[in-house]
Design a protein that fits this description.
heterodimer, A: about 110 residues, mainly beta, globular, B: about 110 residues
């Protein structure tokens, strides 16, 4: 059974700092890995999707990498801002008939202090 | 304005009652999903549906029921058999079989048992 772990569970940094969030998964047979953002009491917003054949994806100040063989992904946030404060969740897709089934990690709660 | 709507935003239930959470999407997606999120944790799959009049159990289906009579709608009923229903419930939808596509999430319903 696929298990997804995110470290750290919580992180507090001063504004402007570059930071890395980690995600690991136990079964390397995935179709893709996604990073989501969740604001308190809200739904999830997709940030980046990395296909299993890709190594990284970038969007603005965000860069996500994927090492499928070692079961690891990192989300790099450059020049963090208070508006980046949220919970970040990674999820991997299961290779089953539904094609887009996701297994989620527990999330990293990020606080960026002004 | 395309998207997923969930209602109500907050729901209170007395013990022994069944309650139904609404989820509607106008994205023309074939697949729809229900997740449960407990404080500080990731999402766990309750039920999913790939086509009208068909649905499958997820990892934690006990005490829940669903229906899919229309493509746009996927209501979730939390029955009295669910022993610990207090949680944040998220509905999502996606295309089917598009392995590079993401799931789109609604804003969530917070259910509290009194």
């Amino acid at each position: 059974k696929q298990e997804v772990t995110q470290i750290p569970a919580a992180l507090s940094v001063p504004e402007g700092e570059n930071l890395v969030l980690n995600c690991s998964f136990t079964d390397s047979a995935i179709y893709n890995l996604q990073w989501f953002r969740q604001d308190p009491g809200k739904g999830l917003t997709s940030l980046l999707l990395i296909q299993s054949s890709q190594r990284e994806q970038t969007s603005g100040r965000l860069n996500a990498s994927l090492d499928k063989s070692s079961g690891r992904s990192t989300l790099y946030i450059a020049a963090s801002q208070p508006g980046d404060s949220a919970t970040y969740l990674c999820a991997v897709s299961k290779p089953d008939n539904a094609g887009n089934m996701l297994t989620f990690g527990g999330g990293t709660r990020l606080m960026v202090k002004p | 304005d395309g998207g997923i709507t969930q209602s109500p935003k907050y729901l209170f239930r007395k013990e022994g009652q069944n309650v139904t959470l609404s989820c509607e999407q106008n994205l023309n997606h074939d697949a729809m999903y229900w997740y449960r999120q407990d404080p500080g944790q990731g999402l766990r799959l309750i039920y999913y549906s790939q086509i009208v009049n068909d649905f499958q159990k997820g990892d934690i289906a006990e005490g829940y029921s669903v229906s899919r009579e229309k493509k746009e709608s996927f209501p979730l009923t939390v029955t009295s058999a669910q022993k610990n229903p207090t949680a944040f419930y998220l509905c999502a939808s996606s295309t089917l079989g598009a392995l590079t596509d993401t799931q789109y999430f609604g804003p969530g319903t917070r259910l509290t048992v009194l």
